[in-house]
């Protein structure tokens, strides 16, 4: 099956962002600078505590990254929403890797807890997504929990991240979100 490799380097992620990895009209990652991953270090169909799948990824930090320049002047920090977006990016990638068809869309999340920050002096952000629920039929939806670490320390936790895949013949994104509530 396409995409069954267990890790992806930046070139593989960029291939996904260009729509080449899973095919036209199927899950894509955003292009830089919105691509918040440099590599997927591990992706498993049966990973996680519930055996429904997991993804691990990393993002290398450099003091001159675009968001440090504008968020906030004189007090640079990576916006928490970018960490959340990285988790959604990973969840959508996983659905495509599993063979799901349609364009990926973030559908929401249950809750988020921030306990730290990403600063220009940090070196590495690590992301972990663990699936709790997968629907892989005409309706393709994943529900997962995620963790963000900076230099090995947990700084962010998100519960019930929801991502769906849809095409013109499937439900709207709003109906997908309602179906997974």
What are the defining features of this structure?
7-stranded antiparallel beta sheet; 21% helix; 4 helices; 181 residues; alpha+beta; 7 strands
Give a quick summary of the entry.
This protein is α+β, with helices and mostly antiparallel strands. The protein has four helices and seven strands, in the order αββααβββββα. The two termini are 30 Å apart.
Structure in words:
- The protein is of the alpha+beta class and 181 residues long.
- The protein has four helices and seven strands; from the N terminus they run αββααβββββα.
- The chain has helices spanning 10-17, 66-70, 80-97, 173-179; strands at 39-44, 54-60, 103-108, 111-114, 124-136, 140-150, 153-166.
- Strands 1, 2, 3, 4, 5, 6 and 7 form a seven-stranded antiparallel β-sheet that branches.
- It is globular.
- The chain starts with 9 loop residues before the first helix and ends with a helix.
- The model has no long low-confidence stretch (mean pLDDT 93).
Instruction: Please summarize the sheet with the most strands.
Output: 7 strands, antiparallel
Helical stretch count? 4
Give the helix proportion (percent range): 10-25%
Order of helices and strands: HEEHHEEEEEH
* Helical/strand content category: alpha+beta
How many strands appear in the DSSP assignment? 7
Shape: globular
Average pLDDT score: 93
Low-pLDDT windows of residues: none
